[in-house]
Amino acid sequence: MDGLVRRSPWAGVLIWCVAVLSLSVLAAAAVVRSTVLDAEFYSQVLEDERAYQRFYDEVLVDPAGTPLTQELLDRLPVPQSTITSNLKVVIPPETLRAMGDRQIAEVIHYLEGDRDRLRVTVDLEPVVANVERLSQAYFGDAVAALQQRAEPDFQAFVQRLSELAAQVVAGEAPLEDLPTLPLSHGQAVAATDALMRLVPAGERAGLRPTVQSALDRGDVAAALASVAPVALTEEVRAAAAELLREAREGTWVITVDVAPAREELAAVDRARSVTRLFQEVVEPAAAVLCAAALTLLWLSTPGPVRRRLMPLGWVLAAAASLTALTVLLLRLMPVGALFGSPASWPPSATRLLTDVQATAVDRLLTTAVLVAVILLAAGALLITVGWVWETRPGMPVLTDPRHGPALTFAVTACALVGTMLAPVAITGSSPRVCQGSAELCDARYDEIAQLASHNAMATTADRFIGPLQDPDIVGQLDAGVRVLLLDTHRWERPEEVADRLSTSDFSPALRRRLTGILERVNPPEPGLWLCHSVCGAGALELAPALRQIGDWLRANPTEVVTLILQDGVGAVDTQAAFEQAGLADLLYEPDPDPDRPWPELGEMIDGGRRLVVFAEKADGPAPWYRNFYRYGMETPFAFRSPDEMSCLPNRGGTDKRLFLLNHFVTAGGGRRLDAGTVNARERVLERAHTCERRRGRPVNFIAVDYATIGDALGAVEELNAERREEDGRFPVERSPERLGDAVRAASPSE
């Protein structure tokens, strides 16, 4: 071999080049295996981009997509607010994540060539379980809502009727639990309309009189029996039965044939071709060539073993350099999206897909750099060992074992000193921070804007039915919320419900039936609770929830938190709950005179009294428990659409130091789809500025639903920045003329 190389120098160059190229190919294969063919890679990319969370917080509420979504939801017999607000209950992020992980495994099987078709697999079992729980709790909530109405809950009746119609369509005969709510003629007509949606258009005219007549006399069984024979074709009925069967088994499998002709799947097909080529041809050939080339290089290098280490090291270093150069070129080249989004997608969905792809490419290239670093380190080690081995006699300082401990100590000491001093040298000392900003410490409490969460206890995280926030209370505080609007309640006893029903227009039989239902689906629990209207639809124990707020405050000593309680619990019992939660040392006592200026945030923080508590009804007896409307004013809160929002006076009048801006839509419940529009930074700023001009006071609390959707926090921060730049724009002491202007601007003539 030595003779061959000496006779033909080009043979040695060829061997070296083959070794470098084949090793580079093996490095690329290692990158592909640890990224494109690794399930953890995809899962981490989705987590890095918060893909599952962004689906709820950005894609679903994108204003560009909500008209179509609302149009579809309006066709259902259940209020759309009930559906959208409970999406995270029916399909919570963890369930969506589990579905994603399962689908990732299917994609990898396809890319590896284990399957000829890409299978989209959806596990319905957790969704079905959540829907069942939601329907039970929602029914309890709907029935309890009747306590405030003068007529039965017709919407709940139509929902149940539609569920039974679906059973009939699927070939299942509902033998019990038929709804028997008495209907007016108008309600019977509306229920008939709901059933007619299941009937082919050509059959509706002849069938409608029979169905409506049955519903007029309350005969639901006859109405369903009339609809069933003509509702759907045998083919669709068979498909529905198959779907129900699959759902009961827990899995619904759809198999999609992947072909290059299908544009949306062409990129997946190309990726499959590349990965199979790598696995079946390129990687095995590179492994054989690399082993042969390195063996030849070892045998062709003259001299002892120590001289043969250095050429191998240079091969590794060259392969590392080639890999790094490839990564550099890929980063410099404009790389388009691998998967394009349809033109019909809303912008937020396109952004999400683009961000996920960019993160995936970035992680892939980062992995390639890591592989190059490993190759380079291995090569450098071989080169250094060979060189030191050759030159050991001339380097006694580095090679003498007696100097090892001293060198180790010196290097370690330098590393430790550098680790301790470098951060200080780079960042310097930290400025004082109040309420998350160094600029707010000398601002008064009644001068700053703060983000408030409406019905902060009703969260997806705590499994409320009809939640109005997604994270739990601590999660909202971590996300920047500093004002929590909470509702305190006692669990209603069935006899209390019966007393209220006795004053309604319900028949005695219906009252007894409703009371019996409530005893089953909404059993009372003793104690004090945080609930949203009905505790059966979700409840948190009051004292433990307050204790969590106190723990958060102690862990964040530069923050001030405000609670505004819709107090369904008496003041004395509420005071006892705060004491039980151990909050006595944190509670701030407002000045008894509501016209006095509030202290600066820095003073409140230095004094340790950083929890301000207001009530909607109570005013004491505890000195820290004050009626909010003595100190503050608000806007209306019953807006049914974003366009209805106004600055009209509501509770508290027009001349208070604190200003609560109710900035949410309530149309049959929270409107998740509207949150993307309502909570947009510009929308919040525009309304805040408008109401400030008309009231002559700065907005202090901006209360929103779904506080983590949109950018209401960004609007709050911008408001505070504006006030800092224009100090004195909102004078606390106002002249009578200015007050009159504010009252006239906020008058109903608006």
From TrEMBL:
Asked if Membrane is a keyword of the record, the answer is yes
The region called Disordered is annotated at: 722-750
**Keywords from the UniProt entry:** Membrane, Transmembrane, Transmembrane helix
Q: Which residue stretches does the UniProt record annotate as biased composition, category Basic and acidic residues? A: 722-741
Answer yes or no on keyword Transmembrane: yes
**Pfam families for this protein:** PI-PLC_X
- Can you name this protein? Integral membrane protein
Organism of provenance: Streptomyces vinaceusdrappus
